[in-house]
Amino acid sequence: MTDHDTLYFDGSCPLCRREMAHLARLKSDDLVLQDIHDLPDGNALPDKSSMLQSLHLRKDGDWVTGIDANIAAWQYTRIGFFWRWLSWPVIKPIASWAYRVWATRRYAKRYPASTASDNVPE
After folding, report:
1. How far is C-alpha 109 from the chain's CA centre?
2. Dmax over Cα atoms in the chain, in whole Å?
3. Closest listed residue to residue 7, CA positions, set 80, 48, 57
4. Contacts of residue 82, Cβ cutoff 8 Å, sequence gap at least 6
5. Mind listing the pLDDT tens digit for each residue in 12-47?
6. What DSSP string runs through 9-61?
7. Residues 59-69: pLDDT tens digits?
8. Taking Cα atoms as reference points, which of 43, 44, 71 lies closest to residue 59?
9. Which pTM was predicted?
10. Residues with Cβ < 8 Å from 119, sequence gap 6 or more?
Protein backbone atom coordinates (compact mmCIF):
# COMPACT_ATOMS: atom_id res chain seq x y z
CA MET A 1 0.00 0.00 0.00
CA THR A 2 1.19 3.50 -0.78
CA ASP A 3 1.40 6.43 1.62
CA HIS A 4 -0.50 8.61 -0.83
CA ASP A 5 -4.04 8.45 -2.12
CA THR A 6 -4.41 8.76 -5.89
CA LEU A 7 -7.06 10.49 -8.00
CA TYR A 8 -7.25 9.13 -11.56
CA PHE A 9 -8.57 11.54 -14.20
CA ASP A 10 -8.94 11.88 -17.97
CA GLY A 11 -6.07 14.14 -19.01
CA SER A 12 -7.44 14.47 -22.55
CA CYS A 13 -10.56 16.28 -21.26
CA PRO A 14 -10.02 20.07 -21.20
CA LEU A 15 -12.47 20.66 -18.33
CA CYS A 16 -10.93 17.80 -16.34
CA ARG A 17 -7.42 19.19 -16.90
CA ARG A 18 -8.50 22.65 -15.71
CA GLU A 19 -10.06 21.25 -12.54
CA MET A 20 -6.99 19.08 -11.86
CA ALA A 21 -4.65 22.06 -12.40
CA HIS A 22 -6.69 24.02 -9.85
CA LEU A 23 -6.73 21.07 -7.45
CA ALA A 24 -2.96 20.60 -7.91
CA ARG A 25 -2.31 24.16 -6.77
CA LEU A 26 -4.32 23.69 -3.57
CA LYS A 27 -3.93 20.05 -2.56
CA SER A 28 -1.67 18.56 0.08
CA ASP A 29 1.12 16.14 -0.76
CA ASP A 30 -1.08 13.28 0.48
CA LEU A 31 -2.98 13.24 -2.83
CA VAL A 32 -1.42 12.25 -6.14
CA LEU A 33 -3.13 13.26 -9.38
CA GLN A 34 -2.70 10.63 -12.10
CA ASP A 35 -3.66 11.06 -15.76
CA ILE A 36 -5.19 7.75 -16.84
CA HIS A 37 -3.54 8.06 -20.26
CA ASP A 38 -0.08 8.05 -18.63
CA LEU A 39 -0.60 4.72 -16.84
CA PRO A 40 1.55 1.79 -17.97
CA ASP A 41 -0.19 -1.16 -19.61
CA GLY A 42 -0.78 -4.23 -17.49
CA ASN A 43 -1.39 -2.43 -14.20
CA ALA A 44 -3.70 -3.88 -11.54
CA LEU A 45 -6.26 -1.08 -11.81
CA PRO A 46 -9.84 -1.18 -13.08
CA ASP A 47 -10.08 -1.23 -16.87
CA LYS A 48 -9.23 2.01 -18.67
CA SER A 49 -12.73 2.44 -20.11
CA SER A 50 -14.33 2.35 -16.64
CA MET A 51 -11.77 4.77 -15.26
CA LEU A 52 -12.36 7.22 -18.12
CA GLN A 53 -16.11 7.20 -17.51
CA SER A 54 -15.85 8.82 -14.07
CA LEU A 55 -13.30 9.95 -11.52
CA HIS A 56 -11.69 7.19 -9.48
CA LEU A 57 -9.93 7.81 -6.18
CA ARG A 58 -7.85 5.15 -4.46
CA LYS A 59 -8.17 6.18 -0.81
CA ASP A 60 -6.70 4.12 2.02
CA GLY A 61 -6.77 1.06 -0.25
CA ASP A 62 -10.46 1.46 -1.15
CA TRP A 63 -12.01 2.80 -4.36
CA VAL A 64 -14.22 5.89 -4.35
CA THR A 65 -15.82 6.91 -7.66
CA GLY A 66 -17.89 9.62 -9.28
CA ILE A 67 -19.07 12.60 -7.27
CA ASP A 68 -17.81 10.94 -4.08
CA ALA A 69 -14.28 10.85 -5.55
CA ASN A 70 -14.54 14.53 -6.46
CA ILE A 71 -15.76 15.52 -3.00
CA ALA A 72 -13.08 13.37 -1.33
CA ALA A 73 -10.30 14.79 -3.53
CA TRP A 74 -11.15 18.35 -2.54
CA GLN A 75 -10.87 17.37 1.13
CA TYR A 76 -7.10 17.40 0.57
CA THR A 77 -7.31 21.19 0.22
CA ARG A 78 -8.02 24.00 2.64
CA ILE A 79 -11.31 24.67 0.80
CA GLY A 80 -12.63 21.12 1.03
CA PHE A 81 -15.47 22.23 3.27
CA PHE A 82 -17.01 24.06 0.27
CA TRP A 83 -17.62 20.68 -1.36
CA ARG A 84 -19.06 18.85 1.66
CA TRP A 85 -22.59 20.14 1.11
CA LEU A 86 -22.75 17.88 -1.96
CA SER A 87 -22.76 14.95 0.50
CA TRP A 88 -25.76 16.15 2.48
CA PRO A 89 -28.59 13.57 2.40
CA VAL A 90 -31.04 15.83 0.56
CA ILE A 91 -28.44 17.05 -1.96
CA LYS A 92 -26.37 13.91 -2.62
CA PRO A 93 -28.89 12.02 -4.80
CA ILE A 94 -29.28 15.08 -7.02
CA ALA A 95 -25.53 15.75 -7.15
CA SER A 96 -24.81 12.09 -7.92
CA TRP A 97 -27.41 12.04 -10.69
CA ALA A 98 -26.08 15.29 -12.20
CA TYR A 99 -22.50 13.99 -12.12
CA ARG A 100 -23.53 10.68 -13.75
CA VAL A 101 -25.41 12.50 -16.53
CA TRP A 102 -22.49 14.86 -17.14
CA ALA A 103 -19.88 12.07 -17.02
CA THR A 104 -21.88 9.83 -19.37
CA ARG A 105 -22.32 12.63 -21.91
CA ARG A 106 -18.68 13.70 -21.61
CA TYR A 107 -17.48 10.15 -22.21
CA ALA A 108 -19.81 9.63 -25.19
CA LYS A 109 -18.66 12.91 -26.74
CA ARG A 110 -14.92 12.33 -26.18
CA TYR A 111 -14.91 8.63 -27.05
CA PRO A 112 -17.82 8.04 -29.48
CA ALA A 113 -16.35 4.82 -30.90
CA SER A 114 -15.68 3.54 -27.38
CA THR A 115 -19.26 4.07 -26.32
CA ALA A 116 -20.36 1.50 -28.88
CA SER A 117 -17.45 -0.93 -28.63
CA ASP A 118 -16.04 -0.34 -25.14
CA ASN A 119 -12.56 0.10 -26.64
CA VAL A 120 -10.75 3.23 -25.58
CA PRO A 121 -8.38 4.87 -28.06
CA GLU A 122 -4.82 5.29 -26.86
Report:
1. 17
2. 41
3. 57
4. 74
5. 999 999 999 999 999 999 999 999 999 987 777 888
6. E-TT-HHHHHHHHHHHHH--TTEEEEEGGGSPTT-SSSPHHHHHHS-EEEETT
7. 999 999 999 99
8. 71
9. 0.86
10. 49, 113
